[in-house]
Amino acid sequence: MNIPISEIEKLKKAIETADFIVLTGHQNPDADCVGANLGLFHVLKEQRKQVQIILPNRFPDNLKWMPSTDQIVVYEKDTELASQYIQKADLIFSIDYNHFSRTGKMQNALEQAKAQKVIIDHHPEPDIYHITFSDTSVSSASELVYEVIKHLHSESIVNIQSAECLFAGIMADTGCFSYNSSKPKTFLNVAELLEKQINKDYIKAKLFDNYSIERTRLMGYLLSEKMVVLPEFRTAYIVLSEQEKEKFGYKIGDSEGFVNLPLSIENINFSVFIMEHEGFMKMSMRSRGNFDVNQFARKHFKGGGHKNAAGGKDFDLKLLEVADKLVSLLPQYKEELLNS
Ligand SMILES: [Mn+2]
User: Fold this and answer.
1) Distance, CA 328 to ligand 1 centroid (Å)?
2) What CATH number did the domain enclosing 37 receive?
3) pTM metric for this prediction
4) How far does residue 292's CA lie from ligand 1's centre (Å)?
5) By three-state DSSP, how is residue 186 classified?
6) What is the number of helices (H) and of strands (E) in the chain?
7) How far apart are CA 55 and CA 76, in angstroms?
8) At 245, which CATH number?
């Protein structure tokens, strides 16, 4: 794991001298993002630091159980207050994202802030920060935060609240330890978090067995009526319209995980989920093996992410046109898709 000691020394000093610290996450924060932020938050609190988490927009309801989520400020909701905190901060962390543009409307405020800026992230090609912890091979931002904390202090400073949040982040970003989790180190770290007496089964249930009836019915509908499988490209995709979202009482976060479903089909290496979302088309992509969806999303759909998990968007095309564009691109990747 890439934890440069020089960066640890810089961060140690920066935390010591900072009077006010702001932690931030990306737009549409997920469990890893919220868990990593809170994991660090609880440790900094333990050190009696003044610290505030600011997220660009609201996080899914099934993360509310994490200790101290009630203290998170949402920029979209409390813009004035959030801006004041950002201006006042001596130290700002970018956690689980690689560029301020990933924070939506918060971007400007962050760019103009006078604070020293630290990144702790596992996405490729991070922007330039004062202090950098970037490792694409790590399971999750939460695990990277845990490693940074251990290098700054020792694991003894991690309290149960912090451990619960970090564990949740790792569990979520690895799909319950099914991907991004082949390294023994991840399991060693998880073992240490379990030593803190966290309730693993409770966290698993909160993250994965906490869906609404509507979401479960929507999933059934998408799989039976909407999934298009293209065996010749080892690809499958699903499109979801605004109208269908309404019909199934869609709530923010409901589509979380849908993109993974087609990958459970034998020989499917590439899965895409396309959804109408607030006037544009939002895409999620997943792949198995060598097919690089980060490159694919960057090149064709104004997006990016990781090699096997990425997102994209389109502001011009209609829902079915995005699907057509996707299908039209597949022949040039045929070789890669078949050998992925
Ligand atoms: Mn993450």
Assistant:
1) 30
2) 3.90.1640.10
3) 0.86
4) 17
5) helix
6) 13, 12
7) 8
8) 3.10.310.30
Q: Give residue 66 CA to ligand 1 midpoint distance, Å.
A: 17
For ligand 1, the distance from its centroid to the CA atom of residue 33, given in whole angstroms, is 6
Q: 301 CA to middle of ligand 1, Å?
A: 20
**Spatial distance between the Cα atoms of 268 and 299, rounded to a whole number of angstroms:** 22
Both 240 and 167 in one domain: the answer is no
Please, what is the average pLDDT of the chain? 96
The reply to whether 26 and 67 lie within a common domain is: yes
Spacing, Cα 38 to ligand 1 middle (Å): 14
Instruction: For residue 4, give the nearest of 148, 140, 192 by alpha carbon.
Output: 148
Q: What is the pLDDT of residue 99?
A: 97
Domain containing residue 176? 5-208
Distance 141 CA to ligand 1 centre (A): 5
Instruction: State pLDDT tens for residues 83-99.
Output: 999 999 999 999 999 99
Q: Are both 202 and 234 inside the same structural domain?
A: no
Q: Tell me the CA–centroid distance for residue 153 and ligand 1, in Å.
A: 23
Convert the pLDDT of each residue in 266-296 to its tens digit. Answer: 999 999 999 999 899 999 999 999 999 999 9
Asked if 190 and 304 sit in the same domain, the reply is no
pLDDT over threshold 90, residue 196: yes
| Paired tokens of 277 | 């979302």
